[in-house]
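Q: Given only this backbone (346 positions), what sequence would you predict?
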């Protein structure tokens, strides 16, 4: 098994792209604090939207899905899960809630990681929830002809517990020393965790929960308001490409984590920009807010798209204002029912 030496990252020179990301995110973090003090309206609704999107997106990346109606019912805990997919969605919901409500009391240790994994599979009949893998697993990919092949072979089961312990200890030590930017150390930890693939199932989802936990604990709470998982789901090919590029030479400690770091930082920065855009819309009269949200869209959009941009406005008010904009000829309504969408005429 390779070694892990996160504290040596303080001596590494990062390229301009990474340095620029760090500068922009630090600045955006400061702006977020100011926005939250000045414009608290709609924040609670924004948090609920982010939770729904994070739960939906993190599971959909793994092919786990349900309908929009059932998702909302599951998130509000108004219905029990009906099938395997919904049981896993409910488990992710619970694990995410635990992190959002208690992150400052959840240290990074193998035991807490196992507990999050157990929560995630609590509704299923799986026997492996809360346990590290006991059989060898493989990271697979599919070629252009649809044929599956092994992309990467993670460490063996007997190596896994000590390896997870080591990266937890190493990250805790490095963050405690304060000499390495958390925005560098966290994606490297997540990359190593994904290369280890310590569970039979749920590795990707746990890695995204850990990303949220670690960012929160280091003061980067953007995921509370804008779903990072939704950003990943929109361009998951780029996520897998960055991970694959960074995995090469991992066993020999010759891997280059830069592609994954850049992807991670780019995702965080995109979330901060979305947050700033939504806060800029807040504070206007509701019709102006909806109009500004519409004007920010390119191509077709739905009522849900606009409602997410206007967290301080109820869905019924958004719908009423969209109808007004249609009557004024500023937008056009197309389709019907769940397939309804709008396009700008101006």
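A: Predicted residues:
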């Amino acid at each position: 098994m390779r070694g892990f030496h996160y504290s040596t990252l303080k001596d590494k020179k990062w390229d301009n792209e990474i340095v620029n990301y760090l500068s922009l995110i630090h600045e955006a973090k400061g702006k977020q604090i100011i926005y939250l003090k000045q414009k608290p309206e709609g924040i609670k609704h924004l948090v609920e939207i982010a939770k729904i999107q994070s739960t939906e997106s993190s599971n959909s990346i793994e092919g786990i899905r349900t309908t929009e109606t059932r998702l909302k019912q599951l998130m509000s805990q108004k219905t029990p899960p009906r099938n395997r997919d919904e049981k896993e969605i409910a488990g992710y919901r619970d694990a995410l809630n635990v992190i959002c409500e208690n992150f400052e009391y959840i240290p990074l240790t193998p035991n807490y990681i196992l507990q999050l994994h157990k929560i995630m599979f609590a509704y299923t009949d799986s026997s492996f929830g809360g346990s590290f893998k006991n059989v060898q697993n493989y990271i697979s990919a599919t070629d252009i002809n649809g044929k599956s092949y092994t992309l990467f072979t993670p460490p063996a089961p007997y190596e896994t517990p000590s390896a997870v312990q080591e990266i937890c200890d190493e990250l805790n030590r490095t963050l405690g020393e304060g000499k390495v930017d958390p925005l560098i150390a966290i994606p490297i930890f997540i990359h190593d965790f994904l290369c280890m693939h310590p569970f039979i199932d749920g590795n990707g989802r746990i890695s995204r929960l850990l990303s949220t936990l670690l960012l929160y604990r280091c003061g980067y709470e953007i995921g509370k308001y804008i779903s990072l998982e939704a950003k990943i789901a929109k361009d998951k090919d780029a996520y897998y490409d960055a991970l694959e590029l960074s995995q090469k030479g991992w066993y020999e400690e010759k891997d280059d984590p830069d592609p994954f770091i850049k992807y991670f930082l780019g995702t965080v920065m995109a979330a901060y920009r979305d947050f700033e855009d939504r806060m800029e819309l807040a504070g206007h009269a509701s019709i102006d807010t909806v109009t500004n949200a519409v004007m920010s869209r390119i191509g077709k959009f739905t009522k849900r798209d606009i409602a997410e941009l206007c967290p301080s406005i109820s869905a019924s008010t958004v719908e009423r204002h969209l109808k007004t904009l249609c009557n004024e000829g500023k937008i056009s309504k197309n389709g019907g029912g769940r397939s309804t969408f709008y396009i700008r005429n101006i």
